[in-house]
Design a protein that fits this description.
Layout lengths: L3 H12 L7 H12 L6 E5 L2 E5 L9 H20 L6 H7 L7 H12 L3 E3 L12 E3 L1 H14 L1
Antiparallel strand pairs: 1-2, 3-4
Helix pairs in contact: 3-5
Length: 150
């Protein structure tokens, strides 16, 4: 292995991409232990660093985490739509995504079924001109969330 990794690490440190040399690895190991997972396996193969995590992908309570993430995304969607109707693509951009994701599509579908949002063209749900807008119920949910944060 060449002597380049320390040079690369120093460049990352100078740009602020990393805080302290080696600290991230120790934090990853500590977090694995904290959550009852085996520490990762670090290997160097053909000049590449391979990190293998041996942890359950779906742990107990993961559904709650997923619901919390979905709820957070729903609030972000409500906030973006509070400024006006948006297409799915424009909504993704407003949320800082490069494109519509499966998670966003599921969130929109769930919000439509809960009548928090509605189509601007209800008779043409697959129209390329389709947009989403808040319903009164959606406005109330957003207001309730904002009041709870104060």
């Amino acid at each position: 292995m060449t002597n380049n990794p320390p040079i690369i690490a120093e460049a990352f440190h100078r740009t602020g991409a990393v805080e302290v040399w080696g600290r991230g690895t120790n934090r990853v190991i500590a977090m694995c232990k904290k959550h009852g997972a085996s520490p990762p396996l670090f290997e160097e193969r053909q000049g590449f660093l391979i990190v293998t995590f041996r942890a359950q992908l779906v742990a107990d309570g993961a559904a709650g985490t997923s619901e919390a993430q979905s709820g957070a995304q729903s609030i972000r969607v409500l906030g973006a739509l509070s400024r006006g109707a948006l297409s799915a693509r424009s909504l993704a951009v407003a949320l800082g995504m490069r494109s519509k994701t499966g998670a966003l599509k599921r969130t929109l579908s769930e919000m439509l079924s809960k009548t928090l949002i509605e189509y601007t063209l209800p008779d043409r749900p697959n129209s390329r001109l389709q947009k989403y807008r808040l319903t009164e119920k959606g406005r109330q949910a957003l207001q309730k969330h904002e009041e709870g944060r104060q």
